[in-house]
Amino acid sequence: MPTVLVMGEEVPGPLVGPGEILAMLGVGRSRFRQIIVHPNFPRPFQTLMAGSVWLRSDVEAYIAKYRQPRPPADEDEPG
Q: Which domain of life is it from (predicted)?
């Protein structure tokens, strides 16, 4: 597999941007902006002219440690 470089830095894994993180967290843009400034959220791998990118593994580790799993939709409703 070829080495991938971002701004001259070797990338140690897949990257995700805000759109992917929104989907991974299941939140909207305003909640996303609140979450990414929290001290426990991982720092971006790079900040590019188009915005920040994070290592997918860092975001997945954050989700596993700090986010509560949501119940499946059919378990939300009484019945």
A: Bacteria
DSSP-assigned letters across all residues of 26-64: T--HHHHHHHHTSTTSPPPSEEETTEEEEEHHHHHHHHH
Spell out the residues 6+ positions from residue 65 whose beta carbon is closer than 8 angstroms to its own: 40
Render pLDDT for 5-56 as a digit per residue (tens, 0 to 9): 666 668 788 999 999 999 999 999 999 999 999 999 999 999 989 999 999 9
Strand partners, 16: 54
Asked if residue 44 lies in contact with residue 57, where contact means CB atoms within 8 angstroms, the answer is no
Q: Tokens for 11?
A: 């990338």
∠ Cα 39 40 46 (to 5°): 80
Token pair in block for residue 52: 């920040």
